[in-house]
Amino acid sequence: MTQLTDSVANVIEQLAKLPGVGKKSAERLAYHILRVNKGEALALSDAIRDVRENVRYCARCYNLSEAELCNICLDQNRDQGLICVVEQPRDLMSLEQSGFRGVYHVLLGRIAPLDGIGPDQLTIQALVDRVKAGSFRELIMATNPTVEGDGTALHISNLLAEQPLKMTRLARGITTGSILEFTNKEILADALSGRQDF
């Protein structure tokens, strides 16, 4: 069996630590890096260095930003009375693609006691302070529809129960074009409990 150089073994080991990248994929990526020209390979390493050195959390909403405030928080054309609470910046990006034009608050996770993550490790207190100081008319809970996401949403709604704002949750259920017989029981249960007037 051919022995790898220390440098190649190290890059494979580091790439394999990425989520969704196994040892075989890490090997393919490493050999790709070796095949491309030096400039292209170094551009990747520069991009990784730049993102680690320049990207931080927005001081207001905790989205990813390269300045104190992110572009969404700086956009005065957004509906400042409508705030959407999400778990991660990638969730925010999904909602942005749907056309949402309010503002956001990123929790940077969800309450997960089994993983040792409590409310104090998230940006929940910053959200509470922001809502109390702001003039929001509606808060949309857009945490993931999981036990932890629902628990996080419930915790936040309890903390904000005295605030004069409407709290809503993203709708759940059967998507347009679905066939009932192929829909799992959890989705059907959500659809039944969240049914609307016809």
Question: How would you explain this protein's 3D organization?
Answer:
The protein contains eight helices and six strands; from the N terminus they run αααββαβαβαβαβα. With 198 residues, it is α/β, with parallel strands linked by helices. The protein folds into two domains: 6-54, Orthogonal Bundle (Helicase, Ruva Protein, domain 3); 78-169, Dna Topoisomerase Vi A Subunit, Chain: A, domain 2. The strands form two sheets. A four-stranded parallel sheet has the order 4-3-5-6. The chain has a two-stranded antiparallel sheet with strand order 1-2. The protein is globular and about 65 Å long. The termini are far apart. The mean pLDDT is 92.
Described by the principal axes of the CA atoms, the overall outline is globular
- Roughly what is the average pLDDT, rounded to an integer? 92
Structural class: alpha/beta
Measured between the Cα atoms of the first and last residue, the distance is: 68 Å
Tally of strands = 6
The CATH architecture designation of the largest domain is: 3-Layer(aba) Sandwich
Order of strands across the biggest sheet?
Answer: 4-3-5-6
- Low-confidence sequence ranges: none
Count up the helices.
Answer: 8
